[in-house]
Each structure stands twice: as C-alpha cells, then as structure tokens.
C-alpha cells in the first residue's frame, strides 16, 4: 500500500545525525544511530518505549548518547588503558551494503547491517585491524536482536572486552527485580572490583548498584511489577552480565537528570572477566535478544521462573 511506511528507512535524527528506523508490520519499531552504531529506541506495537533514553542525552560527538544500547568495545569500563568503555560508541559507523551471510536465513524484513572499521587515528590508540559488523533486527513479535561479528584482519592476535550497555526503561526502580543472577559471583565496581557471591532470592534495588555478574545464564528476566511487564534478555557469546543503577550518583552525571535513575536499569550482556582473544582470520560473535512480555501470575505472585524456563 502506498501509505505504508517501509520496514527500513534511513533519515535524519537529532542534530541532523543519520539514523535507521526499523518497522515491523504489527507496529513495533526501533531506531539506530550511525553515530555509535547505537540503538536509541525500541517500541512495542502499542508505541510504548521500552528503552531508557535520558532527556539530557547529548547527540553530539565525542560524547556517547546516554541511554539506549551503547556498544562498549574494545574495552568495557575501566578494564584496560583506553577511555571508559572504549571508543566504538563514539565513532561513526556505516551501513554495511555487503555483509557476509549468516548461517541461518531469516525472513525478517526489518533489519539493518552496520560496520565499523578503525581509522588511522583509532589505530594509534588501539593498534589492531578488525571489521566490526553489527546486525540489528526487529523480529515478527517485536523482539529486538543485536548480533555483533568482530573479525581479526590483522597479522597478530588481539584481545578485547565488550558489552551491550542496555538501558531498559522501568516504571520505578524500587518496583523492579532481576531473576537469573541470584547466588552468582560478581565483581563489585563500587568496592574496587572485589569478588563476592550474591545472597538472597532475587536482585532488587534500594541504592546504587554497579556489579559484574560472572558465568551468567543465557536467559535473564527483569520484572517490572508496576508495569506488569517482564523483559526477557537472551544472550550468546557473552558470559557476564553487568547490572548498573547510579541512584543518587545521577546528580553527578551531566547528561542524566537527577531523578532519571528511577526510570532506568542497565542490564548489560558482556565479556569482561575473561577477555576475548582472536587470532588472525578468526571471528567472534556476540548476540543479544530482548523481548518484553506481560508478567504472568501464579497465586497472585509474579512468576519469573515460568519466563526463565519457558
Ligand atoms: O556499566 C556500568 C558502568 O561501567 C558504570 O560503572 C557507570 O560508570 C556506567 O557504566 C556509565 O558509564 P559512562 O561512561 O557511560 O558514564
């Protein structure tokens, strides 16, 4: 039909930056900025935004966009000598017109392929040659899928750490809990990265949290009691999961509103504890899949186990 919007559209976003809009026939959508290869929006078929984006986000290089899904590469956080979270999140990516095929053929139409290759300047900071390909897909049920493929095209091996720094939109951080990380070991960023074991049934929030959970399951549920919504996060190739909410520290983050911490929660599939090493010619793949489903009830209780086992 002539009035119908296309599944993939390239247009201008904030400050004239290029963005790709993905639309699925039932109404869900996503937006991806070429600046950072950064997903900034993911909406369900009711038009509800599912990712958090700060009202103070600065869409201007060299600052990374605050919210959505920044890509942390080739370094997560301060785990190395580079700037915090590496540099992929504040570089311009390109549309990848000829991506190598994936092993399984998908019938989805709402997807885009991006590519990031280091510039001469980047090679001075991190002297390794690679091609970083990122496919972003909206599935038929409105699921958001990100697949990163990093190929070593250098003559020597290199190692990197990585995260999808996913900012989820939540009704109220005090009403949220995470299932799937309980009893796991974590490194506490607020305690000089010391190692602890998580105690208790589930992760809830009443103060600042900045933890790297280790050896995490492939499926994690984030339950928003007030919204009666559960985010199901599936991941592959990414053994760790970072959980971050800055709480009162939001006041010291210039591009985050003082109270905005109440409406965001970062759950970040990551490879941090053990860096990924690629020999020349080798490729690494890391995948994130997000879906948002109505929370189910059993005996009046939200039942994340059914989500995790389903
Ligand atoms: O992933 C958690 C974290 O590493 C925190 O330590 C916190 O600093 C956050 O990322 C945000 O980092 P940014 O550089 O985007 O301000």
Automatic annotation (TrEMBL):
GO cellular component, one term: cytoplasm
Highest taxon above the source species: Eukaryota
CDD domains in the cross-refs: D-hex-6-P-epi_like
Pfam families on file: Aldose_epim
Enzyme Commission designation: 5.1.3.15
Biological-process GO terms, alphabetical: carbohydrate metabolic process
Keyword Isomerase recorded: yes
Keywords carried by this UniProt record: Isomerase
One GO molecular-function entry: glucose-6-phosphate 1-epimerase activity
Protein name: glucose-6-phosphate 1-epimerase
């Amino acid at each position: 039909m002539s009035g119908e919007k296309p599944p993939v559209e390239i247009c201008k976003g904030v400050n004239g930056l290029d963005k790709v809009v993905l639309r699925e026939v039932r109404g869900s959508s996503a937006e991806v900025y070429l600046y950072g290869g950064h997903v900034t929006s993911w909406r369900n078929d009711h038009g509800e935004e599912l990712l958090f984006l700060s009202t103070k986000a600065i869409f201007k290089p060299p600052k990374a966009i605050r919210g959505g899904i920044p890509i942390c590469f080739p370094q997560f956080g301060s785990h190395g000598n580079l700037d915090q979270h590496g540099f992929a999140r504040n570089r311009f990516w390109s549309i990848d017109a000829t991506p190598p095929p994936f092993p399984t053929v998908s019938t989805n139409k709402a997807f885009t392929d991006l590519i990031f290759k280091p510039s001469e300047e980047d090679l001075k900071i991190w002297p390794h040659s690679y091609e970083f390909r990122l496919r972003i897909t909206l599935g038929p049920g409105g699921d958001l899928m990100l697949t990163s493929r990093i190929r070593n095209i250098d003559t020597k091996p290199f190692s990197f750490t990585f995260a999808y720094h996913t900012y989820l939109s939540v009704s109220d951080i005090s009403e949220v809990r995470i299932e799937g990380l309980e009893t796991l070991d974590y490194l506490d960023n607020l305690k000089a990265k010391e190692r602890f074991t998580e105690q208790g049934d589930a992760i809830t929030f009443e103060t600042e949290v900045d933890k790297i959970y280790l050896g995490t399951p492939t499926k994690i549920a984030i339950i928003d009691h007030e919204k009666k919504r559960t985010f199901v996060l599936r991941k592959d190739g990414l053994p760790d999961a970072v959980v971050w909410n800055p709480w009162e520290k939001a006041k010291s983050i210039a591009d985050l509103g003082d109270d905005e911490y109440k409406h965001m929660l970062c759950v970040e599939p990551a490879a941090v504890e053990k860096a990924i090493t690629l020999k020349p010619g080798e490729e690494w793949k890391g995948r994130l899949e997000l879906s948002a489903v109505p929370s189910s009830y059993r005996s009046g209780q939200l039942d994340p186990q059914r989500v995790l086992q389903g």
